[in-house]
């Protein structure tokens, strides 16, 4: 990627050196997120960093994805794990959606579909946000020259996250406890960017208490990558999501 900044290319090279595999870049207009890095496994010779063309500050998306990879490959093989869905989250999400309210028949019929959508979003967010917030702090602290693109990227993410506050299917909306995850990220965004605006919508929606609890739960976990599973588990416990997933030893060829 010749159009990346030298600092970003240096981060990519660190991933390649640490993992022993090259990183290939692949534009993908079908992505629902800005970028994702698929680790080299199942016989693949390279990591593949897919990105959505025209999705904003590519240097930030690349640095952010590579930050995850650096934390993962800094671990010895016996401490590397996969995060897998247990299938229990949909039923619990349905309980959150229907608890304490009387719904019309049309909305009750929508519950299974919306609950599954909420469960998949919540699991992806649980896997990405606690560690991702540490990656963002790392980018901010270690690469001051990337702060302009980081600001642009964080602002974009925060604007997209606001849609969660109004995401609905009939009268069904994202359960308040789960909205604590983007609320926690909004707190970090305000901290890193020196603002106070991103937390405001979550305070108005009454979910910032959960966000602050997640922030505090994360702060109690040591910073090293060897503690990333414990960090995710701490968030899961605070959210009542511990049974939604399990950890399985990471195997390159499985």
In short, what is this structure?
This protein is mainly α and 254 residues long.
What's the topology here?
Elements: H1 6-19, E1 23-27, E2 35-38, E3 47-51, H2 58-73, E4 81-85, H3 89-98, H4 105-142, H5 147-161, E5 168-169, E6 172-173, H6 180-193, H7 200-204, H8 208-219, H9 228-239, E7 245-249
Parallel strand pairs: 1-3
Antiparallel strand pairs: 2-3, 4-7, 5-6
Helix pairs in contact: 1-2, 2-4, 2-5, 3-4, 4-6, 4-9, 5-6, 6-8, 8-9
> What form results from the Cα inertia axes?
globular
Q: Any idea how many domains?
A: 2
User: Gyration radius, to the nearest Å?
Assistant: 19 Å
Distance between the termini: 30 Å
Strand order of the largest sheet: 1-3-2
Q: State the helicity in percent bands.
A: 40-55%
The description of the largest β-sheet is: 3 strands, mixed
Judged by helices, strands and strand pairing, the structural class is mainly alpha
Proportion of residues in β-strands: 5-15%
What does this structure look like?
The structure is a single chain. The chain is mainly alpha-helical and 254 residues long. It folds into two domains: 6-73, no CATH class; 82-249, no CATH class. Helix content is 54%, strand content 11%. The protein is built from nine helices and seven strands, in the order H-E-E-E-H-E-H-H-H-E-E-H-H-H-H-E. The protein has helices spanning 6-19, 58-73, 89-98, 105-142, 147-161, 180-193, 200-204, 208-219, 228-239; strands spanning 23-27, 35-38, 47-51, 81-85, 168-169, 172-173, 245-249. A three-stranded mixed beta sheet has the order 1-3-2, with helices on one face. Strand 2 (35-38) and strand 3 form a beta hairpin. Helix 1 (6-19) runs parallel beside helix 2, helix 4 runs antiparallel to helix 9 (228-239) and helix 6 crosses helix 8. It is globular. The two termini are 30 Å apart. The model has no long low-confidence stretch (mean pLDDT 95).
